[in-house]
Design a protein that fits this description.
406 residues; TIM Barrel; nine-stranded mixed β-sheet; eight-stranded mixed β-sheet; 11 helices
Length: 406
Amino acid sequence: MAETTVAITGGRIVPVTSDPIEHGTVLIEGGKIVAVGPDVAVPDGARVIDAGGSWVLPGFIEAHGHVGVHEEAEGWAGQDTNEMTDPVTAHVRALDAINPADLGFRDAIGGGVLAVNVNPGSGNPIGGQTVALKCWGRTVDEMVLRQPSGLKSALGENPKRVYGDKKQTPSTRLGTAAVIRGAFVDAANYLARIEAEERKPEADRKHIDRDLKLEALGRVLRREIPWRQHCHRADDIATALRIAEEFGFDLVIDHGTEAHLLADIIAARNIPVIIGPLFTSRSKVELRNRSLANPGRLDQAGVTIAITTDHPVVPINFLVHQASLAVKEGLDRETALRALTINPARIIGVDDRLGSIEPGKDADLAIWSGDPLDVLSRVRRAFINGVQVYSYDSGREIFADLSAAN
């Protein structure tokens, strides 16, 4: 359970959505932030944590990762990222394959990443439902922030390789686009049938069998959840834009390696890009134009960005280092912090709870030894729901008992 009252005092508070506060206080009650400022009164009996000389930030958010479904050090037994038995698996849910004991969750917390959006993989044209989680809990159900938080789709090399090797559709980019379009047409027809029956008098209505795939796609068409489009190359990004225009859904571009080549179009349509991973080699054609300068190019064009490690492609605790090196290559410092906090919170639909230090939001906070964009800084303490779940002391990482997550 969250401690009744906690006061983090004396630190440099970086709310993200407003100016930093020197020697400020964050007051926490019942797991929520209730006050932030330089002159916050600390109630008698509160637990006081001296953050003098430290920086206090909201927990970082990994907007696109596979922590929990692609477990580390488990090999085949922990690999549940792709259900590559059907090109359309809109009905599968990342939620059902997440192991909270995956080492990646603890790595995340040690790197200041306190929430993650877990995606299925990119082997299928339509891969399944994503889920937004906090990084601490005994069961995944305790960790959920939003379920589903999106529906994963993939364009480009991966689905055409997977199904082309099987000698089945789709084996080309045009086949992948056709599969996606066909699934949306089926979903639109399904919704139309349901709506037609609902308009009839109750006694005259016919039963329509449920279809979990079409229900999930229907949520995208109704703009209840975004379409999370894996695409690297500019031509694939153009296809994503084209299909979104045809069917009228909310699009999020995942990876966006060549998104800077279409940045003006993307910005004009107010489509966010979750860019990364940024530390990988150019291991395939789609990554030919990978560059640490690309986040800055997108930002300068007015595109809203978040940064991803695509964990475990890049270890999730290196999320902040990707941002630091993107700053080195031209990304604005303030944007870099927003790309780790409020931007991903808005993209995955949890900005009412996370992404900034404001009264009313969850007390998911990290106390850093210094500027988090300095590679020598590290997380000293981390709090989720006002509970201290992590500390670093004398060269040791110390995690709280998981019962504290309840």
